[in-house]
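Ticket #4471: structure export looks truncated?
Reporter: QA, pipeline team
Priority: medium

Steps to reproduce: submit the single chain below to the structure queue and open the exported record.
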Amino acid sequence: MRERPSGDDISERKRAEAALRESEERLRIALEGARFGTFDYYPQTDKMDWDDQLRRIWGVGPGEALSYAEVVARLHPDDRPRMLAAVADAYDPRSGDDYRAEYRVIRPDGSWRWHDTRGRVQFERCADGSNRPVRVIGVVRDVTEHKTAEAALVELNRALKAQVAEVSRQADQLRALASRLSRVEQHERQRLAKILHDHLQQLLVAAQMQSSTLLREAANERQRAAACAVRDVLKEALSVSRSLTVELSPPVLREAGLIAALEWLAERMQEQHGLTLRLHTETRAEPGGDELRFLLFECARELMLNVVKHADVDTAVLVLVRSRGGALELSVSDEGSGFDPDVVTRRRPDETSFGLFSIKERLAHLGGRMSILSAPGRGTQVTLSVPTAALRPQGSAAEAAEPAARVGELRLYPMPESRRVLLVDDHRIVRQGLAGLFRFEADIEVVGEADAGEQAVTMAAELQPDVIIMDVKLGADMDGIEATRRVLACNPQVRVIGLSMHADVAVATAMRDAGAAAYLTKDGPCEELLAAIRAKRGPELRPSAAPV
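Actual output as written to the record:
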């Protein structure tokens, strides 16, 4: 006879059932709070049980549940093989009974949603000793927002990498441009110094000779005093010209190197500003390339001038050494008034000293840096550091290989239409000035120079230029008006631009009647001359009576 349970057993069982219901309720609330839906699947009967949260996730109505085949049919084609492989792997007892997969499903409204499923397979032992899956229990969570944010983050990272690459490319271009600008500046300084030496100074010397002749042939004291005054003015002009020549391009920098140039600079500062400069240099700190020598010399001169203007001292120290790491370091220090570096840091870019700003930017493009140590009343020390990579001489193997290494960054642009220009002027300095002006214009090529009308007509026939810059006054044999008329008679497609020191309406009219396309004054803006050269052929440019 079966024994009936006692009252204590019934109470214990009820308490256990209540605890179980409470635990299930907590689990249900937790799953709903985490937006997890649950399912049970029985492979042997293909029965699928879903909770309400899972129905909401899949977008089906209350009480509905899709079959396994319907679930598979709604999977995104790209995700279906991965999902089926994960389930098949979990059905194999040797691989483990858990699986997880992320996949997209299409909802009844046609939208695609990302689901994250985690499941576990239960097995039962068969008579033959094998295990077969009898139940799959799992949870599903809609992770569409997470995947969207993840995709946005990937895109953001891609865009950020692209921006970093672009910034790096622009930085490389800026470094190359800074290097080129430095070379152009150096070249222009040398060119101007050469013009001053070879032309202006020669003219001043010739004028001095003529003044000496006037002094010797003076008939009275008044003429002698006037000749002496002219000689003194020419002497002063020659002295200023020589000083400017040296300032523009110190010969010692090209011929003897940076250290020798710094020694020359120390003497110059003593002579011009009364500043005593104590030098401490190392022979091994001499840069190998002219470009870096020029840059460091200009930086040193700028720092010296800052000492003169702001430090209120008569002594400074300049040190040029190589650090243990091989970097080149140039420092200038003084014990003068000093300043608060924070004040400089807080300044807007338009308030910053151009000298210090220029030094800092040019060093940055070489990978170098500038540091300033100062305090009010305690002096200032400015240190420039250039890394080893920037110290290689121009034309080195590394520099020669650089364009090949960056060929992927090369951008090609169409070459502008070129204008072949013939310069006609009886003043060599004017011709050289015009040639220098056109040197950096990619679409203007100077093909020849003539100093007389007959020569201009001959060279125009030989060289076939597109444009002729024609001086109006060329001498007694043939002026620019007649030369223009003869050139255009033989070659009417040439564009002749008349050039004169004076804005003379009558001369402008005569040049126009001879066929010139434009008439400009020599002291007018160079932009107008460049525009006249680049203008289309035809008489659209009017004779100008005044510079614009």
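Status: closed, not a bug. The export was complete when the record was re-opened. Leaving a note from the reviewer for reference: The first strand starts at residue 36 and ends at 42.
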